[in-house]
From TrEMBL:
InterPro entries per record: BRCA2_OB_1 (IPR015187), Glycosyltr_41/O-GlcNAc_trsf (IPR051939), NA-bd_OB-fold (IPR012340), TPR-like_helical_dom_sf (IPR011990), TPR_rpt (IPR019734)
The keyword Glycosyltransferase is annotated on this UniProt entry: yes
Keywords associated with the record: Glycosyltransferase, TPR repeat, Transferase
Organism classification: Eukaryota, Viridiplantae, Streptophyta, Embryophyta, Tracheophyta
Stretches of the chain forming a coiled coil according to its record: none
Pfam families hit by this protein: BRCA-2_OB1, TPR_17
GO terms for MF: glycosyltransferase activity
Listed name of the protein: BRCA2 OB1 domain-containing protein
Domain of life: Eukaryota
GO process terms (BP): double-strand break repair via homologous recombination
Pathway as given in its UniProt record: Protein modification; protein glycosylation
C-alpha cells in the first residue's frame, strides 16, 4: 500500500467519525462533549478554524469545560497569530477561570499561609516565541517550579 492509500483510508475514517459525531449533535444538540470531539477531529485534519468553532460551541453549553477551554486556547494561537492582546486576554481569562474551578488541594494538612501557597502553587507569566512571533503565556505550577529551581532558562527550547 502506498502513502496515498493510507492517506485516503485515514481521511475516510475521519470523515466517518465526523459524520457519527454530527449525527449525535443533531440528535441531542446539548451533548456538549460531542462538540469537543468534533473539534479534535477537525484539528487533526488541519482545519483549525472549524476546530475552534466546535470548541466554542462546547463552551457555550458548558463554559467550564476544561478540555474544550484548553483546546480553544491552542487553536487561537494559530487563528489569532499576531494578535497578541487578544491571545493574552483569552489565556489570562481562562487561567483565572481554571484557578477558580480547580482549586489546589487543601487536604493533606496543607498550610494556609499565603506565602506558603505562593511557594507551592504560584504560576509565572512569560513570553514565548518561535523566534518570529512572541505570545504571552502563563506557566502551569509544575513548569513554574522548574523555572524557580533554575531548570528552565531564557532561550531554552522545549520539546515534547
Amino acid at each position: 500500500m502506498g502513502h496515498n492509500c493510507f492517506s485516503r483510508l485515514r481521511q475516510s475514517k475521519m470523515d466517518a467519525a465526523a459524520s457519527m459525531i454530527e449525527k449525535a449533535i443533531i440528535t441531542n444538540p446539548t451533548y456538549a462533549e460531542a462538540y469537543n470531539n468534533l473539534g479534535v477531529l477537525y484539528r487533526d485534519d488541519g482545519d483549525i478554524a472549524l476546530a475552534n468553532n466546535a470548541y466554542e460551541q462546547r463552551l457555550k453549553i458548558d463554559p467550564n469545560s476544561r478540555n474544550a477551554g484548553q483546546n480553544r486556547l491552542l487553536a487561537m494561537n494559530y487563528i489569532d497569530e499576531g494578535n497578541d492582546d487578544k491571545l493574552f486576554e483569552a489565556h489570562r481569562d481562562w487561567g483565572r477561570r481554571f484557578m477558580r474551578l480547580y482549586q489546589p488541594f487543601t487536604s493533606w494538612n496543607n498550610s494556609k499561609d499565603p506565602e506558603d501557597f505562593k511557594k507551592h502553587y504560584a504560576t509565572v507569566q512569560v513570553e514565548l516565541t518561535d523566534e518570529w512571533y512572541p505570545i504571552n503565556a502563563i506557566l502551569d505550577v509544575p513548569l513554574s517550579k522548574q523555572l524557580a529551581a533554575g531548570r528552565l532558562f531564557v532561550g531554552q527550547k522545549l520539546r515534547k
